Structure formats: C-alpha cells, structure tokens
Amino acid sequence: MISLVLYIDPGTGSMLFSVFIGVVATAFFLVRTAFLKVKLLFSGRKAREALKAAGADRKKFVIYNEGRQYYNVFLPVLKAFEKKQVTVDYLTGDGDDPLLKENSFKYVRPEYIGSGNTAFARLNLLTADVLLATTPGLDVYQWKRSKNVGHYAHIKHGTGDATLYRLFGVDYFDSILLTGDYQAVDLRTLEEQRGLPKKEMVTVGCTYLDLLAERMKGMDKAEEHPYTVLLSPSWGPNGILSRYGEQLLDPLIASGMHIIIRPHPQSKKSEPQLLERLQERYRDAGNVEWNYDKDNLACLVRSDIMISDFSSIIFDYMFLCDRPVVYVNAEMDTRMCDAGDLDKKLWQFAAVEKCGIELKKEDFPRIAELLRGASDSEELARNRAWAKSEAWMHQGESGERVADFMISKEKKENKEGV
Asked: What is the pTM (predicted TM-score) of this model?
C-alpha cells in the first residue's frame, strides 16, 4: 500500500481557508438576496422593505472604509457632503470606527458591515452609483466588482508612489484620485504594459494632510522640550527595526537625546516578538518613549528631527513640520508590487534622497554627532518645498474636490442610464 502525505504550509492553508470563507459568505448573500427578490414578486410592499433591509436598495454615494486607520482620509470628504447637504452612505469594516459614534452628521449614514470576507460579501452585491475606497485589489482577490455599481473610485491615502500596492492593486478601478500629478505617470505606464483601458485620473490633493494641517494650527509648537528624535520605521524584514535593531538603538539611546520610537501599526501584528525584545532591553532607559497612539500628530510636532526608512511618514513630517529627516537607505523589495514592473527609481525614493540626510550603518557609532550637526540647510528646505508642491497639490481643497468628483460621476451614470 502506498501512503500519500499532503502537506500544506500555514500561509497557503490560511489563504485557502480565507477563500473558502469568502465563497460561503458570498453564497449566503446571493441566496438571501435571490430569496428576497422572489418574495418581492408575491408580497409587494413588505417584500420591497425586506429587500431594502438586505442592502439591495440603490445608493447614490458609498464610501467604504476597511479600518479606522483611514478615518482621517474620509472625514474631509464626509464634511464636504454634509456641507452640500447631500446624503452619503459610509460603510465601515471596523466596529470601532469613530464615525459609528458620531452624531453631528445629518447627511452621513454610517453602517458597520463586518470585516474581511463578511464585508466583501456585502460589497460584492452592492447596488450604488459611485463607490469610493482606499482598499486596493478590486477584482483581484475576494473583493469583486458588483454589476450594480456604476463607478469604482480609488483614493490614495498617502503622498507616496501609487505603484507600491501589491500586484494589480488599482488596475480594475474606473478612476484613481491622486494627491499629486506625478503619481499618474507610472500608472499610465502600467496600463500600456498590461493592455488595460485608460482609467480616469484626477488629482484632488491629500485629504488627511489637509485635516492634520488644520489641526496643527491650534497646537503649541513653542513648548520647551529636550532635543527629540522621532524614530518612525516601516515594518517587515527591510524596516530599520528589523534590519538593525540594537545596532542602531544602542548608540542612539546612549546619545542622551530624548528618543520617541513609534513602530508601524502593522509591527504589533506581524513582529510582536521583535518589539517585546527591544522594549525589554531598553525598559530602564529614561530617555526612551515607545509610542503606539493611533494619532501620530503629537509625536510629529514634539520632535526636532526624524529617522526613518522607506515609510511614507517621512513626507507627512516634511510637509507638515518642515523639519529635517534622516533616512536609512533600506532596500525595499518591490517584486510583489506594481512598482516591480517599472524599470526606474520610484519618485518617493528619489525625493527622500534629495530632501533628507542619509544615515549609513558605519555612521551608527557617531549618530549623536550626526544628528546634532544635521543642519537645516537652505538647499534641504528648498527641496522639501519642491517635494511638497509635487506630492500634495490643492492643499486645503481635497475634501471638496473629492465630493465634487463623486457627484459629477453620479450625474453622468444616471444620464447614461446606468
């Protein structure tokens, strides 16, 4: 007798389980909706109300937020709809989304639709004129286009390159709302390479930076504090905490400067052992502060200089605070990203080199000298202004521009009979 042992690695097993759950959830909603449609034929008004309760009623404007970390991206848009007195449905995949407890909006209708595959099952059967989301991967993984949604718009939630999503991240959206014109160049290149129809690309600005800039006006920047270094790494094997860890932190903490270490939110999920090891190592260091606040604005304002790698928070810091940044030239593996199909250096990597001060591994022993001597030269200030003008256009106008775009799409969809 021949025995066969089938081994499935945990990652593949998890993916298969996720797909299975998605199929089951989608089947459930399909059967439920079909049942209600049949019921509608025989029971008139009551059935129509039941069908509406199941989410099959047509909505004009839908915003889908997969998690509360993107709340600030959508808030300026919601405020614009409220100002225009136009109703918008806000579907969230996070039960702790702040908007679920917000009662100041009259024209925003928030609803929790579950997370993960449960949310996708609902979205896959949605009926709407225009849907806006930061979530990539439409028609690639579990999230499928609904034949009853007229227009899918993706909004960029950062000022970095639009090609750093996983492969095919935005290929199947109808439009992309950009923070700066430069982001469209590489997207057009990918469209040509992949034989995709041209999407509508509209530069609207950066919604969450507009929001943070407004909030900064009421913050006291003149408060006396010790010279403060903000260490803001990305996560994963190429992030500076994973790659260098104690090699960087030992001399940095020994400098005596106040150090705020703010790990990437994903680090707590993906590399908790790393964080636990480092926090235990430096638990008695009086000049170290580990920060996990949901809002990073206070840390940005309190710091005098930032150290980071390829994290897009570098641009938040430069654009909002206009202070020097030091970058560790960690290599980012783009093979699983859209950027891997481009034969060029990405804009954000080139911009960091132009606007920041490079920190090499051999510089770690003298990091205190390097940081204290990091002069905010006129050239660096000019380069920061250049990057800001390229990546954060239409400052202060983004929420209004996004709402206007969605309204124009809805009018076009209805005019064409969609």
From this structure: 0.82
